[in-house]
Amino acid sequence: MSTPDDGARPDYPTSLGVATPTEIRLLGEDLTGLMGTVGFGELAFWLVTLRRPTPSETRVFEACLVALADHGFTPTAIAARLTYLSAPESLQGAIAAGLLGGGSRFLGVTEDTGAFLAEALGNARAPLPRSDDGWDALALDAVRTYRASGRKVPGLGHHLHKEQDPRVPRLLEIADEEGLRGPHLRLFEAVGRVSEQAVGRRLPLNGAGAVGAALADLGLPIELLRGFALLARTAGLLGQLAEERRSPVAGQVFAAVEGGAVYVDPRP
What we know:
Layout: E1 17-19, E2 24-26, E3 29-30, H1 31-34, H2 40-49, H3 55-68, H4 75-86, H5 91-100, H6 108-123, H7 132-148, H8 167-177, H9 183-199, H10 207-217, H11 225-246, H12 250-259
Antiparallel strand pairs: 1-2, 2-3
Helix pairs in contact: 3-8, 3-10, 3-11, 4-5, 4-11, 4-12, 5-11, 6-9, 6-10, 7-9, 8-10, 9-10
């Protein structure tokens, strides 16, 4: 490799995309050959892992993206719509505004859950459990240890789905059908079973957490899991903005908040 000191132009190695005046290559393939033959979800997986996913992996991965694409008028959607109301010339700004809200309460739960499960599995004694009782014991210890450190267990509870998040059993079913129900998902299921014993009340598993477990079982980097959640939500935000153009509501949201503003004297 050349260096700036030898007078030659420096090299910047990449295994992703390169272009010349006559062709574009991506992941070592002719881009035009990938067009029409590789799905976008499959390509996203490939770009991160530098290996083409199997059909089973693609199905689970894309199910995860679908699960996180849109949930209605969430804070991310509202932020995008209000930004579009303020700056309709900046579609990218509206989408960015929605994505910036991906944190510990929305979207970020996917990565947080994956990290929690990976930490618990890393601390577990080998071999991993082979029965539900064994997984439950591991989950109980993991939840108690996590809570003892002052942290809230990610993936537990949902503001709307108080009994069951419908995405969870479906994602487990798909992973099971494809032979990809791995240790992260098994531990996540066990966390749900022991939640009442561990935290004093029954809390349902949420879909964002299930996605984090499923993505971790696919071998995707834990520190990038939030990126996949944001990838999924980008599609949802684009849909929200398309609907805002067809049937705007952001002005009503703005008017309702402005109309409900009440001045409070800050002095004691």
